[in-house]
């Protein structure tokens, strides 16, 4: 899942080494770790709010412990993205899913740390492959230490995640291994592009299902598993996580070309300038190939020199106003609706309401 620096989701730069401190009036952790807007109703619940935020603080503390190293370079590079903050969506989903069963089990926190470590590791690799200069408002690791160090740091964090998941047993290890496989395949398929006989849109949807949906799905799956929920509940969270993860990435695609920066924190046109083939551009290319003159004009701008801010702004404006971009929103909305529908078998609860609200927030872009 692409991570943008969202000012509503940031952490204050305080240490969690002394343990979490909960502000019971707001449901926030005194260190600055706050619930995303899509999950705001959790904080309003007198029981679930404190339980979730306290658990998130434990995750944050153990996350830092997991990446700590006696080697000064490894310690500095591994802490780089953790110190920069993040939404912690995956750990939050793990914790919420555990509340569909027995959330008190200590394995829940460890599983939440595993999924966030795995996510962090992929970001180090993604930034190298995308030549991204910034991540979460800070210079990327490869900009600071070079490509080789950044890649090896990602590998090291993957190794730390593997150590932790091995302690959780064979089933968790299998989930992690299959997710890791999909993450790698998604990146590989994105890198080589669609085959000649493959529809570019279908190819892209499969890529983001692997690169984003798989780990979000694993997060909910592990939470339900270690909350000792029934297999039917585990299956629900697996399906929900995959769909909401795809919806999130699709919405992020549209945000890049519609200038929605205030809530997302993402500078408009980033993907355009980097040549990332996101859904709005793929749909506009399809329209151009079908003879849409307005789409041809947009593609001419997109494929031109976007190095200047002026040319990028012109391209963003052209893409954002083309009807295909609204079609992309509709695709994202459908995936979010499908995620909500996947929750139908669950009994009514504050957890189900929160998961529903998150799926809806993904496409209204409160997150």
Automatic annotation (TrEMBL):
Cofactor requirements of the protein: Mg(2+)
Keywords recorded for this protein, A-Z: Magnesium, Metal-binding, Transferase
Superkingdom of origin: Bacteria
Residues covered by region (Disordered): 1-21
InterPro entries assigned to the protein according to its UniProt record, in alphabetical order: Isoprenoid_synthase_dom_sf, Polyprenyl_synt, Polyprenyl_synt_CS
EC assignment: 2.5.1.-
Annotated organism of origin: Arthrobacter flavus
The keyword Transferase belongs to this UniProt entry's keyword annotation: yes
Family: Belongs to the FPP/GGPP synthase family.
Example of a GO MF term: transferase activity
The keyword Metal-binding belongs to this UniProt entry's keyword annotation: yes
The protein, known as: Polyprenyl synthetase family protein
Pfam families, A to Z: polyprenyl_synt (PF00348)
């Amino acid at each position: 899942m692409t991570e943008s620096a969202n000012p509503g989701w940031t952490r204050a730069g305080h240490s969690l080494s002394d343990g979490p401190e909960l502000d019971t009036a707001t449901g926030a952790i005194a260190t600055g770790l706050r619930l995303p807007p899509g999950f705001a109703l959790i904080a309003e619940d007198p029981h679930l709010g404190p339980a979730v935020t306290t658990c998130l603080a434990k995750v944050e503390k153990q996350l830092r412990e997991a990446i700590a190293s006696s080697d000064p370079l490894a310690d500095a590079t591994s802490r780089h993205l953790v110190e920069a903050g993040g939404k912690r969506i995956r750990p939050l989903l793990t914790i919420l899913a555990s509340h569909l069963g027995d959330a008190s089990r200590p394995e829940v926190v460890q599983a939440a740390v595993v999924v966030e470590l795995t996510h962090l590791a992929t970001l180090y690799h993604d930034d190298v492959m995308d030549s991204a200069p910034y991540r979460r408002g800070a210079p990327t690791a490869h900009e600071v230490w070079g490509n080789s160090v950044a890649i090896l740091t990602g590998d090291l964090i993957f190794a730390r995640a593997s150590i932790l998941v091995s302690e959780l047993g064979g089933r968790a290890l299998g989930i992690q291994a299959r997710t890791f496989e999909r993450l790698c395949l998604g990146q590989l398929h994105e890198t080589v592009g669609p085959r000649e006989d493959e529809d570019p849109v279908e190819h892209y949807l499969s890529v983001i299902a692997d690169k984003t949906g798989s780990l979000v799905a694993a997060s909910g799956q592990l939470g339900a598993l270690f909350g000792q929920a029934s297999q039917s509940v585990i299956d629900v969270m697996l399906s929900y996580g995959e769909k909401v993860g795809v919806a999130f990435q699709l919405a992020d695609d549209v945000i890049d070309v519609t200038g929605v920066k205030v809530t997302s924190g993402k500078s408009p046109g980033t993907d355009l300038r980097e040549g990332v083939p996101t859904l709005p551009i793929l749909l506009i290319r399809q329209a151009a190939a079908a003879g849409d003159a307005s789409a041809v004009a947009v593609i001419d701008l997109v494929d031109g020199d976007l190095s200047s801010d002026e040319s990028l702004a012109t391209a963003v404006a052209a893409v954002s106003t083309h009807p295909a971009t609204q079609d992309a929103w509709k695709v994202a909305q459908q995936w979010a609706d499908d995620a909500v529908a996947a929750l139908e078998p669950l009994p009514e609860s504050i957890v189900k309401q929160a998961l529903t609200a998150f799926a809806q927030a993904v496409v209204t872009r409160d997150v």
